[in-house]
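Dig into my protein:

:::
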Amino acid sequence: MNHSLRLSLLALLAIAPALQAADLYVHNVKGYTLDGHGKLQHFDALLVDRGKVVATGTDAALAKRAGRARVVDGHGKTLLPGLIDAHGHVLELGYALTQADLTGTQSLDEALARIKAYAKAHPDARWITGGGWNQVIWKLGRFPTAKELDAAVADRPVWLSRVDGHAAWANTAAMKLAGITRDTKDPPGGRIERDAQGNPTGVFVDGATALISAPEPTDPERAAALDTALADMARVGLTGVDDAGIDLPNYRLYKRYADEHKLTARIYAMVRDTGEAFDTIAAEGPLDGYGDGLLTVHAVKLFADGALGSRGAAMLQPYSDDPHNHGLLLMSPGTMASKIEKAFAKGYQVNIHAIGDAANREVLDAFSAAYKVHPEAKALRNRVEHAQIVSMKDIPRFVPLQLIASMQPTHATSDMNMAEDRVGHQRIQGAYAWRRFLKQGTVVAFGSDFPVESPNPFFGLHAAVTRQNHQNQPPGGWYPDQKLSLVEAFRAFTLDAAYAGHAEKAQGTLEPGKYADFILIDQDIFSINPQDIWKTKVLGTWLGGKQVYSAGH
């Protein structure tokens, strides 16, 4: 081989990485992504090959490397990594979109009219199910009753979840079918609302909701709910969701959809509790990145208490607006410890729902005890789901326990109409305290808890940076000292949400080698008035370089 030819070959080899193949070239965009250290980066174009990012950079630089790649012109719109919801309920979203939906009703009369209309439109439905009601918005000063529900539908059982999913409202037909009478006792961790004579009035809180059961959905109904939810998630720009509590049929459905390449978001699923479903699922071993990274099942979801709106959240001191009520702890410390240790023994991350300060303290104590038996389990990145009202003394305990605070910004703006009434001015200092957690170095992962809240992550980003509702109230924000910057909130919906699901090396940013999960949106959220972030519309959603949603179709 002559000297000049050898030099030419060496030169080609030296530049070979720059000529890496690509099958998708997205250009003419205003691109943003975080790097692995959380610093915001800008770019004009994106190069993708076989579902993963090859590079981001300028149009001029990447056009030379695009070769015969399919070209997508972004028309100057903003491109972001796909957003990740660290706490949602996927099938429940699908059901909520197809069942009786009371979300946003402003009065009891409006809710009853909506229920009546739904029942009339579904004459063959054996039960009328759904939810989304909130008696606080209705300004009733009490829970609704079965008699009021009977006025809308009396010929069939009706069973409607409260907006937080921790209480439900039944009509008389549903209570009769379940055999509910004044002699029915409150179950452990639950409460039946009663009148002055002790008769059930129609609302069941937390553990008491198990006393009434609508028929289990069929497999086709489950699949239809999943299809509906996936479509809605893609529409709002979610390319990843941590599903906070699945059962065995849900697990099998997810596996089938992953096998059939029908998942249009990456799912990180938590098995609900450590009972028989967990035993069956864990016997197969944890799933990590199953179906080309579409499905991971490597976590357990436990519940310490209920919700604030229904006064089921467990409080150290009585509710400020209900002095005889401390809320409800759903399991004893011993039971919680045994469940945590069972999950740890199988190598599963443990994520525990805790709203009230008593529940959060119980969870912190339980993790502290469990780590003495399983010190290796700290590496599992265990999480407190919601961490909503935490004693100021307990917030620092998250650091040595290495716990992730999995929080939902829109809960603050939805709850601000009643939260301080429930807990008073002193306890509210440790509520929805995102800034306090971040300042001490705790990883904060953001989600929505959909369908309790909208799955739209731009609603969450808006709430995090303004602490206002969509009418820009209150002026300056509710407890504005806990606001986040947009970059901090963006990180909590991307890189740190991925970290909470052990996926930061594959998701959350558009760094080379990661999945090409990205969205195009209609406005530059980093340059507009923060009060307008919630108005953002998604124009297109891509998962692994494949478009799964287009606003034009």
About this structure: The first helix runs from residue 3 to 15. The radius of gyration is 25 Å. The chain has three domains: 3-76, 127-211, 219-548. Confidence is low (pLDDT under 50) at residues 1-19.
